[in-house]
Amino acid sequence: MPGSTQLLSAAQARRPVERALLFAGVWFVVAEADLSSWTFGVPFVLVATIASLRLTPAREWRIRPAGALRYAWFFAHQSVAGGFDVALRAIRPSLPIDPKLVCYRLRIGPEHARVLVADTVSLLPGTLSAGIEEDSLTMHVLDCGLPVEEGTRLVEEHVADLFGIELAEEGGTIGPCEVGSVGTCGIGSEGAR
């Protein structure tokens, strides 16, 4: 297809320009908008752009703008809810605490999306991601009575929407981790696999 080659070359041409503009913006801020600093700034921008292009591979993923807005709203809401939950547990010792390590079988495939799911899960009330191994996310849960499975599914859905990724039909379930093996998930026989 002749059009696909043209799109690829346009994307490749845009990448160095975007990076150069980013580094020029960084220099502008660091130099406090002093125009005389561009004697050093131009070489900095060129070297930083070239190094960045050689050391960082091209992204094979895109962020969807509408998905980014929905994810940002979800992220902000969960940040407040998670902070509120921790504060309540600190000032009200009567709230239940039943800490456990649990494993969630991920439905999302690409590594960059899995890492974002793990990072975002830590915002959910009473959860902290402890590691990812293969298709399982190990989480420390403060109270097993919390809706951790539903919350983690919701995180996966928002991250999938952000990147435009289809979720696998299997997975999305929580099971116990093998005792004494943080980071190594053994989904229980409760039907998780």
Topology at a glance:
Layout (H helix, E strand, L loop, with lengths): L1 H29 L7 H18 L9 H27 L8 E6 L5 H11 L5 E7 L2 E6 L6 H16 L10 E3 L17
Antiparallel strand pairs: 1-3, 1-4, 2-3
The whole-angstrom Rg is 22 Å
Which descriptor suits the 3D outline? elongated
Please identify, by name, the CATH architecture of the largest domain.
2-Layer Sandwich
Number of helical regions: 5
**Unreliable spans:** 179-193
How many separate domains? Answer: 2
**Terminus-to-terminus distance:** 42 Å
In spatial order, strands of the major sheet run 2-3-1-4
The topology string of helices and strands comes to HHHEHEEHE
Strand count, sense and closure of the main sheet? 4 strands, antiparallel
Tally the beta strands: 4
Helix content: 40-55%
Structural class: alpha+beta
* Overall residue-averaged pLDDT value: 80
Could you tell me the CATH topology label of the largest domain.
Answer: Alpha-Beta Plaits
Name the CATH class of the largest domain: Alpha Beta
